[in-house]
Amino acid sequence: MSITVRLKKGLDLQLVGGIDNISAVTEVTAADNAIFPDDFPGFEPKLDVKEGQSVALGEPLLHDKRDERIKLVSPVEGKVKAVVRGERRHIERIVIEPAAAAAADARPLSIEGISRLSADEARTELMQRGLWALMRQRPYDIVPEPDIAVRDIFITAFDSAPLADNRIDYSAQELQAGIAMLGKLTAGKIYLSRRPNAKLPSLAGVEDIVVEGPHPAGNVGVQIANIAPVNKGEAVITLDITSLGRIGRTLLSGSFDNSACVALTGSEVAEPQLIKTTIGADIASTIKGRLKTADHHQRIISGNVLTGIKVSTDSYLHFPWRQLTVIAEGDDVDEFMGWASLSPKKMSQSRSFLSWLFGPKKFNPDARLLGGRRALILSEQYERLMPMDIVAEYLLKAIIGRDIEKMEQLGIYEVAPEDFALGEWADASKIPAQQIVREGLDYLRKELR
Amino acid sequence: MKPIKKLLDKTRHHFEPGGRLHAFHSVFDGMETFLFTPNTTSKSGVHIHDAIDSKRVMIIVVLALMPCLLFGMYNTGYQHWVATGASEMPFWSLMLYGFLAVLPKIAVSYIVGLGIEFTVAQWRKEEIQEGFLVTGILIPLICPVATPLWMIAVATAFSVIFVKEVFGGTGYNIFNVALVTRAFLFFAYPAKMSGDQVFVATDSIAGLGSGGVVDGFTGATPLGQVATQAGQQAITITDTMGHDLSTWDMFLGLIPGSFGETSTLAILIGAAILLFTGIASWRIVCSVFAGGAVMAFIAHHFATPLYPASMLSVADQLCLGGFAFAAVFMATDPVTAARTKTGKYIYGFLVGAIAIIIRTYNNGYPEGAMLAVLLMNAFAPLIDWCVVEANARRRRKRAIIANPSTDLTEK
């Protein structure tokens, strides 16, 4: 029995640079790999390794100050090439160079083995194998607190973000192993949301949710809001299906699953394609010879255009290691009186540009803000793209005003920055909404601790 | 466009800190972002942005006001020609006359308003905001054509400073800036701003139009005429020469009135632009008309000679005065209107209903649209508060049902 959720609000941005042929997969061997602790909000990193030290695949690189058992592990077998620090010795990334190292002992668990674990043992297994950090907790959108009381678990089995690919590289057995493990964490339900036509094996122990509607339908926060919203005092765990598969495969095989299937997309990519590599792979190897030659600047985004992270060619793939988008930067464009433009190439949700005249078509926007930052002028810009019962504008104002009581009343526990991304795209006032929400969540967590 | 870009690049250093013209850097920034879309790229969050920005929003509203402006020019010329008893109506002469009549007002409103905006932006070290682009054109459109220029200057300065800038500038004001300008004129100079002397231009401009007004001319607006007919069993509305006006005439708008407000047709063209582009909220526009229609129907149903405007039909009520203009261009100002979905319906309905109530049941004010919008501007935050509070209450209720033990008492 499946439950269908139909969403009306939202928008699928039509961008140039999608993958046509999803069966052609290019294998790429990374020159080196890196892990960014900042990709795991809430994780307070403490180093376990030194530069130059040999590490096995899946060997801990960092642990969490909140609980020593929570680890971030090495994405490959090799040597710690560098621990890059920023201001105030903040650890920016740990770079691992592949090299032969003493292999770690594989500690496989069968499905029966998983079923025999106690709840505490299951947590410890996930934490020590570097799998706990792949999950998020709501409220706060952070790596789950070690002692979290999990009401339910929500898994999104599809990514509705622009140009995202929805290939699932894990077997039914691996996914089922992941579900079995997650079942140890909660007495509640495990919800798995998928598209109506998804090619997904049927899994035992999950509530099957079918989600229809445009982006942000794939955001797990949107799914929660429409299935069983998070109330004050409750906590749920969220993850995507790739992380579920990674958990399952790691447990079954006993060694950390470091495979990454990355969708290389965007208007500046010569031939958008799927790339099979390792997590945290270096950008240079991943894009080498695959971008269009251009006389303008290009922006490389690890992730999608709405929530991704800007990276340079000497950087590395960021969590969740699923997508790499390359678009034009646009800082070298001098557009004369763009606000008066009659061009049909302008991408806009409003019909104040002439692009609506020419029917549905794909756009290739660059990274410009296309306007100055202003106070909020137009109303309902966020609400109309957010299929959640949240008055987003007032929540944003409460966050900016650091009004904790108001934030709670307006549902801060239900949101993650990514839920505001589409509204941030549409906003004529060019307000950095995701940043505001992230800072608000961090502030709230600090104040209420 | 390369030469302009080069010129900007070459002169930029003068305006940067330490440069000779640093005092004018806001002006420079304003010009530069006006001429060239800023090429700053996103630093955090989304990497692409909708092409719409506040300049585009404002320019669309200005565009939507063009039919009203053009019709106002024609109507001003037309009324003048009628008043002077001319037998021929040469189109381009009428337009030119109207153009010359309104041009100084537009110039004064922009010079005063933008002057203040530039100064304040400079003082606060902020970018120049575009809000006044719309306000500046709205002011001449909602003022009677014969309003003295100095009054417009004083009123504009008053409202830009005390209604907008003291609150923080565009996006922070509580009241509609253009409407406060109009209200300031109305209450500060009542003798000059009402009656039948200001709504028709009777002087010749730059040699256009001969000065003499013919016998039998009266420049009262239809609503002005209605207000004087208390106690009569039937009301009559005439044009300036005493001919009866039909609802169709009122819809087309060749009648005396504030410059851009007379033609419901022109206003509806503007409304179509605003609603199609999605800049204005259809919820507000529709509910203002709905509120006005309901109240006009009630008033008409209980028509009494004591309040002559109650004898007007629903269609007349909606076409006359500034009602339609207020519904489309004033009530929809997103900054001063209600901002929540439900709030917009309530806000709009009350604007419409109150406009008709004031107009009908208060013989002191022949027109109520301005006051209704200003009143509801003051109440819009309260309406939104109720809507937002309802959302918070839903959430609280849900939490209590889920966890009866949690302490979530209503505060």
The tally of strands of chain B reads: 1
> Which structural class is indicated by helix and strand composition of chain A?
alpha/beta
Report low-confidence residues of chain A grouped into runs of 5 or more. Answer: none
> Roughly how much helix do the residues of chain A carry, as a percent range?
10-25%
Count of alpha and pi helical runs of chain B? 16
Total beta strand runs of chain A: 20
Oligomer: heterodimer
Query: β content of chain A, as a range?
Result: 15-25%
Radius of gyration of chain A: 22 Å
Using the CA coordinates, give the radius of gyration of chain B.
24 Å
Descriptive overview:
The complex is a heterodimer of chains A (449) and B (411). Chain A is an alpha/beta fold. Among the domains of chain A are: 3-12 and 136-249, no CATH class; 381-447, no CATH class. Helices cover 20% and strands 21% of the residues of chain A. Chain A contains 10 helices and 20 strands. Chain A has helices at 111-115, 119-128, 172-183, 220-227, 241-253, 283-287, 392-400, 404-409, 421-426, 433-448, and strands spanning 2-6, 25-27, 33-35, 45-47, 54-55, 60-64, 67-73, 78-85, 91-98, 136-138, 153-156, 190-194, 207-212, 236-240, 259-265, 273-278, 298-302, 309-311, 323-328, 335-336. In chain A, strands 1-13-12-11-14-10 form a 6-stranded mixed β-sheet, sandwiched between helices. A 6-stranded mixed β-sheet of chain A has the order 2-16-15-19-17-18. In chain A, strands 3-9-8-5 form a 4-stranded antiparallel β-sheet, with no helix packed on it. In chain A, a hairpin with a 7-residue loop joins strand 15 and strand 16. In chain A, helix 3 crosses helix 5 (241-253). Chain A starts with a strand and ends with a helix. By secondary structure, chain B is mainly alpha-helical. Chain B folds into 2 domains: 2-35, no CATH class; 54-391. Helices cover 60% and strands 0% of the residues of chain B. Chain B has 16 helices and 1 strand. Chain B has helices at 2-15, 25-35, 54-83, 91-124, 131-142, 149-164, 177-188, 190-193, 222-227, 247-252, 264-277, 282-301, 314-319, 323-330, 341-361, 369-402; one strand at 36-37. Chain B is globular, with a radius of gyration of 24 Å. The mean pLDDT of chain B is 88. Classes of the chains: A alpha/beta (449), B mainly alpha (411). The interface between A and B is large, with 76 and 66 residues. Strand 20 of chain A pairs antiparallel with strand 1 of chain B, so a sheet runs across the interface.
